[in-house]
Amino acid sequence: MGANNGKQSGSEDSDLSMRTVSTPSPALILPPCSPGVLNGSSTSSSTFGTETIAMVHTPPTSLTHPQRSLRQPRDQQGAPIDILPDHAFLQIFTHLPTNQLCRCARVCRRWYNLAWDPRLWRSIRLTGDVLHVDRALRVLTRRLCQDTPNVCLTLETVVVSSCRRLTDRGLYTVAQCCPELRRLEVAGCYNVSNEAVFEVVSRCPNLEHLDVSGCSKVTCISLTRDVSFKLSPLHGQQISIRYLDMTDCFALEDEGLHTIAAHCTQLTHLYLRRCVRLTDEGLRFLVIYCPSVRELSVSDCRFISDFGLREIAKLEGRLRYLSIAHCGRITDVGVRYIAKYCNRLRYLNARGCEGLTDHGVEHLAKNCLKLKSLDIGKCPLVSDAGLEQLALNSFNLKRLSLKSCESITGRGLQVVAANCFDLQLLNVQDCDVPLEALRFVKRHCKCCVIEHTNPAFF
User: Fold this and answer.
1) Among the four given CATH numbers 3.90.1150.10, 2.60.120.920, 3.40.1190.10, 3.80.10.10, the one describing domain 128-451
2) pTM
3) Based on CB atoms within 10 Å of each CB, which residue in 1, 196, 271, 457 is the most buried?
4) What SMART domains does its record include (predicted)?
């Protein structure tokens, strides 16, 4: 990314040429400035999308000079902020995002030394649709490796969200320089491919949290071939990922999920929303290799059926969170498996499962006594009878969504309100319930937020 104008560009090149005090230019990690930016030392801002970013200006010459002494006459002293001790500056800098921290490093020599304190660089967070993120990662990691050649031992988190310019080259940089990486988020970076992800996973043995949601080219998570050859047949246990989000990875298939499960046996959180090619067979592989899964989402996976829920039920009491929203092939049969074996379930999202009836809700109510959140919106076969069973058994219920449930009336809501005193959120949008029933809920569940579409109730 270029500087604001020709004058600034020359100044930045001169500043970056001084190896002893060089710092990554904010221009590397900020979008290009708008044409209307004023020159000089004035400040302005530009809004790109939802993020407002201060413009980059010519770095002050004080970067190359020692800090002014506080013993000078009052009219010659620096700004009052210079009185703050170093630990106070460090505390302030901990709250700054990566681009702002780089900008602070350009103020003066003291700020430069403080801004590059290793304790501030446990994480890098970059966002922006026009961000030259590959270049930014290369420059930042090079600076962080200055004291420990070729590796950065402090960096544990890299978050690069919605950066369409991120490519495999940027991830290769992270893999080569950050062996202590524990968390990587590249959500929405759709130019990233399997090979780069494999490289990160292979070179970062402590990686526990991986978010590749929206990376449509990613179809698998595995070690590189070279690393696999060096390990035993049980090399799958070498990948320590516990949290994996592959939402909107549309090309993921059962074979890919089989490989993921075999390599990532320590998974506890797995999100496969809108992975539309997955079937029940993929879930069978998952349960075989990953028995510790606590949270699982297969929302909008249209090929998942009751047979898939039968496999998921083998997770038994370990499962706490399950989302099967808009899985149209699921009926009471599959829900009954979940209710019978996963009796410690806390959260269930079954919105849009049109095959779910009062019988399925009754099984949930009688077996999952610790259920706290339930979404059965857009289930037209659920009626007041199912709500009555829910109210008489699920005393811990805090969140309930009945949005667009055509068979729900005020009678069912009143039974829920009279028994579920801890209810905090109730969604009855697009439900034909009378005003009196809503007022009854408000009187009995005083802390409950009611989402509704009745203009007479407020």
Assistant:
1) 3.80.10.10
2) 0.82
3) 196
4) FBOX, LRR_CC
